[in-house]
Specification:
It is built from eight helices and 14 strands. By secondary structure, the chain is an alpha+beta fold. The strands form three sheets. Strands 4-3-2-8-7-1-13-14 form an eight-stranded mixed sheet. A four-stranded antiparallel sheet has the order 9-10-11-12, with helices on one face. The chain has a two-stranded parallel sheet with strand order 5-6. Helix 7 packs across helix 8. It binds N-hydroxy-L-asparagine (SD4). N-hydroxy-L-asparagine binds next to strand 10. Belongs to the Ntn-hydrolase family. It holds the Pfam family Asparaginase_2. Its EC number is 3.5.1.26.
Length: about 325
Amino acid sequence: EANLPLVINTWGFEKATLTAWRSLQSGSSPLDAVQSGCSACEEDQCDGSVGFGGHPDETGETTLDALIMNGDTMEVGAVGGLRRVKNAVGVARAVMEHTLHTLIVGESASVFAQDMGFRSESLSTNESMQTFSEWLNQKCQPNYRRSVFPDPAVSCGPYKPRAEAKPRQKRGLVTLSSHDTIGMIVIGQSGQVVAATSTNGASHKVPGRVGDSPIAGAGAYADSSVGGAAATGDGDIMMRFLPSFLAVELMRSGATPTAACNSAIYRIKKHYPEVFGAIICANSTGGFGAACNKISGFLQFPFTVFNPQSNKPQLYKVDCV
Ligand code: SD4
């Protein structure tokens, strides 16, 4: 018996879940619902990790990655390193519907967005500028560069995102530790599976760095004949394993959503036991699950679900493996 429709997303982003659910209830398509859910997070700057004003790069600029996928048609639209446009998932949708491409990046993505009528505006805020200047003023700036001759006065070497269980600071106050991409799967009443992601990536990234979130099969994947998956965590590592694709393929072979999620995390863990990664999985009948990699200080991964049973955004926490 199918338990549909279903909205499921990473983290405790309940407003996003509710927005997507209401969109479905008002008769919108699953694609519109998943887009509106992720857009709500962009406007809300969820955890400072989605949308404008979070995670400035090495030059202080915030740039955005997003993806949307239609599991009926296997169409995908995505943007990487999008500058000066707040609604990244909207631009991803425009890539899918108004071009024959899948992924457009950087300054050119911004020009495309402007051509499509999106407003061009700064993605910086007082908070993101403060994060940037605090980082600049550190004696030793943790960053993503691998120095051949490490100069501790300039750099602490590769920056390690530190996942932690304690509640995030309030909106806009970005910490080095928060990196909470929204990844959402929506399954419509008739079984159409769609997925989307939106993020501002990693703090102090090298300009031009694109993470896993806008990569189909990495950040998210959807196939209406099977289900969907969406990932969050250290994208530089996670994208090497295409965990969302893997999880969907495992469900195709008969794995439950929970088993598929676990296997995708174990695959990464085998090579990178200390790297934070988490994934949500859902099958086309509305079954769902999640998994995360247990690292020090991070033992449980929260995710949010709305389905006919819950009747509200229901927060779940899965124990990490
Ligand atoms: C990235 N995966 O750009 C994103 C960040 C993230 O939870 O998911 N944080 O690497």
